[in-house]
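queue> pop job 88
queue> type: inverse folding (structure -> sequence)
queue> payload:
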């Protein structure tokens, strides 16, 4: 299994250190204004990251999730002002947000209707279909991949396309990135990220479209 490059590892470690420092703030200061600013900052970061997951990875556009953060933050604040230890107050706020999500989400949850959505991938004369019967394919330079792209810029297991909750997700696992050109001409570069494919377009492994790559994988969602 390919490890993360050094840059993303350092960023992840820095994030963990920052989170630990934030959690320890109430132990080293009692200034209400400072703690309030830190809490607002943390909530803003959490909202931004959740929007990145919902909008960028899942392809959803929904601002209602902010209400769950608000419910959790309000619960934690009220309990903290009632002199409950900050750790217990935050834990209770998290549980309140989860409970609200379950109350609202469970009644609306339903199994999606069976459909025959599929994505066709074509690389030269090879055509591969991803659907309910075959839910994922691997793209890359290795002979073990479902679609083999013979270019030095492609990683051995460069990217994966997977059917997940009715969407075809393209996830990049490479060193040089993955480029996607959509039907309207928009080009998206992925670097250890994922997007939902829609319509028709082309995928280039490790080489930008401005370089006129020849090893293209065409796709169409139908």
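queue> result:
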């Amino acid at each position: 299994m390919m490890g993360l490059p050094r840059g993303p590892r350092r960023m992840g470690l820095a994030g963990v250190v920052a989170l630990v420092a934030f959690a320890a703030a109430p132990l080293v200061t009692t200034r209400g204004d400072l703690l309030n600013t830190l809490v607002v900052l943390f909530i803003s970061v959490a909202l931004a990251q959740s929007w990145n997951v919902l909008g960028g990875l899942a392809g959803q556009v929904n601002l209602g999730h902010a209400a769950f953060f608000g419910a959790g933050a309000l619960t934690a604040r009220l309990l903290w002002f009632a002199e409950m230890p900050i750790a217990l107050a935050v834990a209770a706020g998290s549980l309140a947000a989860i409970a609200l999500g379950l109350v609202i989400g469970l009644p609306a949850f339903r199994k999606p209707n069976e459909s025959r959505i599929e994505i066709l991938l074509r690389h030269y004369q090879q055509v591969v279909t991803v659907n309910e019967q075959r839910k994922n394919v691997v793209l890359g330079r290795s002979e073990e991949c479902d679609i083999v792209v013979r270019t030095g810029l492609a990683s051995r297991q460069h990217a994966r396309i997977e059917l997940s909750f009715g969407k075809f997700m393209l996830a990049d696992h490479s060193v040089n990135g993955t480029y996607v050109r959509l039907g309207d001409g928009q080009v998206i570069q992925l670097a250890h990220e994922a997007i939902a494919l829609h319509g028709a377009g082309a995928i280039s492994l490790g080489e930008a479209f401005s370089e006129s790559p020849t090893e293209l994988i065409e796709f169409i969602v139908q």
